[in-house]
């Protein structure tokens, strides 16, 4: 495993910020952390980056113990916080060259390295621009380039899409895909949950310092919550369909959706089939009747329901 935590915990005085966290992330995987502010995502990332010491348990990055061998961990990790400091009086090239020097990259190799990094994050045209003149999205991409200066095996990205407009998010997502193809192991946290679904191999849902769901996007998205979300589209007799669905004891939270209905169904597969037959008997011209794909917002809300009330 490239990243592994064993019964990891963190206390701040009487506050238990992280409790018994056990993660195993394989090489080349993209792992997404889902959770509200204060859930423990940033605490975990800071521990893995050697910027915060845990109170209990152990954590390993590329086989190195984060507490016993922090120098080796730092050479293996590129960490990007949600907001990072920049040097306003430096150009993009100077900024990256400064960090290349900090990582002891030979001076003879820095210019070519910086050029390659700027090309990777689509900032070659801004090489000579001052950092403070760059947009928020460009600064985020420059920060990502900084994380890659020493060619780390692991990238730890805390809310990289925070504060970005839709176009900047798309640009950042495309860069993430390139990094995944390059074999980087990536941990990424984000409140833009659908983007995690597209990027990540595995996700973890964390709430109040505890990991409450963990697995592949497919596994977590299809957890048994006791009901399935369904969708109905029809060409004719939608009014009859609406009345029939509203009267069904198996249908909950019926709503208009894309020229039809979306609803939650709590019942067996046989009862689903019987409901469809009733619709057909009412001459409803059904075009689609089946499961409606859940996004990560739905999954998160279903999994964490009631957790905050404990």
TrEMBL record:
The record's SUPFAM superfamilies line, in alphabetical order, gives:
P-loop containing nucleoside triphosphate hydrolases (SSF52540)
Q: What is this protein called?
A: Probable ABC transporter ATP-binding protein
One Pfam family from the record = ABC_tran
Q: Which PANTHER family match?
A: ABC TRANSPORTER, ABC TRANSPORTER, ATP-BINDING PROTEIN
The source organism is Brevibacillus brevis (strain 47 / JCM 6285 / NBRC 100599)
Return the similarity comment.
Belongs to the ABC transporter superfamily.
Family matches, as CDD domains: ABC_DR_subfamily_A
* Start and end residues of each ABC transporter domain: 3-233
């Amino acid at each position: 495993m490239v990243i592994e935590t064993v019964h990891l915990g963190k206390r701040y005085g009487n506050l238990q910020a992280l409790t018994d966290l056990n993660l195993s992330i394989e090489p080349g995987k993209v792992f997404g952390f889902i959770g509200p502010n204060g859930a423990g995502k940033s605490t975990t990332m800071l521990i893995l980056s050697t910027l915060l010491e845990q109170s209990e348990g152990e954590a390993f990055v590329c086989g190195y113990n984060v507490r016993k061998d922090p120098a080796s961990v730092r050479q293996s990790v590129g960490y990007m916080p949600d907001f990072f400091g920049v040097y306003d009086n430096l150009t993009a090239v100077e900024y990256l060259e400064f960090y290349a020097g900090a990582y002891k990259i030979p001076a003879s190799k820095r210019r070519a390295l910086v050029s390659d990094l700027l090309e990777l994050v689509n900032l070659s045209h801004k090489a000579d621009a001052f950092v403070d003149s760059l947009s928020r999205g460009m600064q985020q991409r420059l920060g990502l380039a900084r994380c890659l200066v020493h060619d780390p095996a692991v990238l730890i990205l805390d809310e990289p899409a925070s504060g970005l407009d839709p176009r900047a998010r798309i640009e950042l997502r495309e860069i993430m895909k390139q990094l995944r193809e390059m074999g980087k192991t990536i941990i990424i946290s984000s409140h833009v949950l659908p983007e995690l679904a597209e990027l990540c191999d595995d996700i973890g849902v964390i709430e109040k310092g505890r990991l409450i769901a963990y697995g592949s996007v497919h596994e977590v998205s299809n957890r048994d919550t006791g009901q399935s979300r369904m969708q109905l589209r029809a060409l004719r007799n939608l009014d009859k369909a609406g009345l029939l669905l509203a009267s069904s004891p198996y249908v909950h939270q019926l709503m208009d959706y894309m020229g039809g209905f979306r609803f939650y169904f709590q019942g067996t597969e046989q009862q689903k089939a019987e409901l469809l037959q009733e619709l057909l008997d009412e001459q409803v011209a059904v075009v689609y009747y089946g499961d409606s794909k859940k996004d990560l917002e739905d999954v998160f809300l279903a999994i964490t329901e009631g957790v905050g009330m404990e």
